[in-house]
Request: fold
Amino acid sequence: MQKVLISLLLFPIMVNAQNPIEPKAKKIEKQLTIHNHTRTDNYYWLNERDSKDVLNYIKEENKVSHAFFKSQKSVIDNLMKEFDNRINPNEVYPPYKVNEITYQDTYSEGDDYIKTHIINLDGSKTLFIDENVRAKKKSFYELADWNPSPNNEIVAMCEDFVGRRKYTISFRKYASNEFLVDKLEGTDGSMEWSNDNKTIYYVKIDPQTLRSFQVYKHTLGTTQDTDQLIFEEKDERFEVGIGKALNDQFVVIFTASSTTSEYHLIDANN
Reply:
């Protein structure tokens, strides 16, 4: 019994000895004054996300995290095996319609991402978007959304290749699958077509805070630096979103905080 107690008491010490020591963030005093009130923030320096000191601190934290999960590898492997056994590797989702075209999403065994097909009138399927191809040789990939033009000739694809929720919108032809030269960077992944099939409204984000705060108007065949700023929300409590009215006659810009929202309409036929 005494040997068992000694072993149990020593076990945490042995585990801790094998793991990296958790780093402690240094204190650098900074005075912040607002509304005639001054407060001290000893960790304000962590706000500088790309600085060498912050990156080094995160690196040390990651060492501790990796060491912990390494010690739990057998548990993690067993859980993942159980999850895999419960998942159908060839999942087929119900078909759905967009602009009178019927689509269907599927997973195939061995793939990490969805394939989207067009279901033709005769019941056959045509591969429309293969996210696995788009993700190939990328360290990260997310297709936030895709949005066809009203005439179903061009599809807008909103993708993140980095993992920072900074989405690039690109445009692909239905007939040839060729991409246009147009690319819209720094968006939140949302956009809407005007009814002329060449004008796009999209939402840009603040490059530092990632807050959605601006709506721009883009015309196919032009460069992004010539796009027109349509709306800007300067109040940092609000974020901006975009959508389309059910009758397709208006593009809807909406701003919302935790307690308030408002809407603005743009004629989708102009």
DSSP finds four helices and 16 strands in the chain. The helical segments are 2-18, 52-71, 73-86, 131-135. Residues 1-15 have pLDDT under 50 and may be disordered.
